[in-house]
Design goal:
It holds the Pfam family DUF1153. By secondary structure, the protein is mainly α. 41% of the residues lie in helices and 10% in strands. The protein has a 3-stranded antiparallel beta sheet with strand order 1-2-3.
């Protein structure tokens, strides 16, 4: 797993580089009540955990995810990039 460094912006907020290449702060993360998980949101949560912005435990609790669900997102990104997170392509990437 590729580990990122956390950085601090001019407002003193900790951030990591998100999946689109833009800075990602805790305020930029999907809301806790997210019901529709699009590719970008999944990738943002994975990037936040990888970069140390939030812990795995925080992510699981905040988003009501199982460990297996999060790890499957992470594996899909590692193997196939963000396209691997498409639910319509799940069979193709297995």
């Amino acid at each position: 797993m590729l580990q990122q460094q956390t950085r601090t912006n001019s407002r003193g907020e900790t951030y990591v580089i998100g999946p689109t290449g833009a800075p990602l702060t805790k305020n930029d993360l999907p809301p806790p009540n997210t019901g529709r998980w699009v590719i970008r949101r999944k990738a943002e949560v994975v990037a936040a955990v990888r970069g140390g912005l939030i812990t795995l435990e925080e992510a699981l609790e905040r988003y009501s995810l199982t460990n297996d669900e999060f790890l499957s997102w992470q594996r899909s990104i590692e193997r196939h990039g963000m396209a691997g997170l498409r639910t319509t392509r799940l069979q193709q990437y297995r």
